[in-house]
Amino acid sequence: MFTTLIDAETLHANLDNSHWAVVDCRFKLAEPEAGRRAYQAGHIPGAVYAHLNKDLSNPAVTDYGRHPLPPPQELINRFSRMGIGTDTQVVAYDDANGMIAARLWWMLRYMGHQAVAVLDGGWQAWEAAGYAARSGEEVRETAAFRGRPHLEWLVLVEEVPHAPLLVDSRDAARYRGEMENIDPIAGHIPGAVNYDYQANWTADGRYRPAAVLRSQLAEVLGDTPPDQATFYCGSGVTACVNLLALAHAGLGNGRLYAGSWSEWCRDPHLPKATGSE
């Protein structure tokens, strides 16, 4: 079972395994249909496509950020349509170092499905290895996904002020409030520390060794147990990269504030901070 990262060679060796499902998660925030077009032009054979806005998000129910988390029954329905059953090994990939694929990874884990991994190096690693691609759209036979949410992993807005540790997963400039090109207000949640999700990989887009990630994250966590740390970002997507890194480092499961800064900053009654903490 692969539960955090998987390499292209291993995926290629298992591509004909009917118990494996591959999900293409390529997406561009500024051009929402670019990922689907890229998938249609060429994708890992057998892969189905998951759209961040349409498949990995939902109209607001549990949170009111830019990418609200679908409720549990909707997740069950969507995973079933993707052909994910209880014994399915899922591999998610994108072309952004797992930035979007990690969201699907976290959602499946949140619903109790352990056999899910992100392709290390993503689409670029698959192409670089010279493996075949396929064009057009593909579907998998509907499966019976079964799962229950780990509600203790999900933090709602009213719980945020009581979190023992808040980790802002955005880049340092957005965290400090020096720039903001997506949300209406710049800054961060008061008391949060910063750990840029991009610190988890090297220049070639592959994740750092588990021991390196463990050292980096341990410095951020300090004395806070990993399962008491709440990670957030702009809209509950890139924070999942840090949660993936946390798990790959062998530190267990953190918590996700899915509404993130996009929900928090829109409430005029909630405090905002700038600078470093």
Describe the structure in your own words:
The structure is a single chain. With 277 residues, the protein is of the alpha/beta class. The protein has two domains: 5-128, Oxidized Rhodanese, domain 1, CATH 3.40.250; 151-264, Oxidized Rhodanese, domain 1 (3-Layer(aba) Sandwich). The protein is built from nine helices and ten strands. The protein has helices spanning 8-13, 34-41, 72-81, 101-110, 122-128, 172-176, 210-221, 239-248, 260-264, and strands at residues 5-6, 20-24, 48-49, 89-93, 116-119, 154-155, 165-168, 193-194, 229-232, 255-257. It has a five-stranded parallel beta sheet with strand order 1-5-4-2-3. Strands 6-10-9-7-8 form a five-stranded parallel beta sheet, covered by helices on one side. Helix 4 (101-110) packs across helix 8. The N and C termini lie far apart (39 Å). 45% of the residues are buried.
Rounded mean pLDDT is 96
Binned strand content: 5-15%
The count of β-strands is 10
Shape: globular
- Please identify, by name, the CATH architecture of the largest domain: 3-Layer(aba) Sandwich
**How does the helix and strand content classify structurally?**
alpha/beta
- Which segments are poorly predicted (pLDDT under 50) over 5 or more consecutive residues? none
H/E element sequence = EHEHEHEHEHEEHEHEHEH
What strand line-up does the widest sheet have?
Answer: 1-5-4-2-3
CATH class type of the largest domain = Alpha Beta
